[in-house]
Design goal:
The protein has 96 residues and is α+β, with helices and mostly antiparallel strands. The protein has 2 helices and 5 strands, in the order ββββαβα. The chain has helices spanning 54-69, 78-86; strands at residues 6-10, 13-19, 25-34, 37-44, 72-75. The protein has a 5-stranded mixed sheet with strand order 1-2-3-4-5. Strand 3 (25-34) and strand 4 (37-44) form a beta hairpin. The protein is globular and about 35 Å long.
Length: 96
Amino acid sequence: MGTEISKAEDGGKGRYVLPLESGEEAYLTYVRSGPGHISIDYSFVPPSARGKGVGAQLVAHAVTDARETGTKITPVCGYVAAEFRRHKEWQDVLAA
């Protein structure tokens, strides 16, 4: 697929970005609502990369990052919420 997923945060807003071989980017955006909580509000995968697990890879990365940093996630984005329903093993980082 592409290269490594990167994370950038500024002023309480952040993105997980996966550069793709096509030169496009797939990404998740989030808003930090506290030191241990983010709301993932948007996901985007370019049409050329859809159906290849790119979005799922981004969500899995966000979950791993949340575990490493002690962060809880509220999935506002419909796709991200669906991934959380699909992966019961992610309940540990799901905000109550």
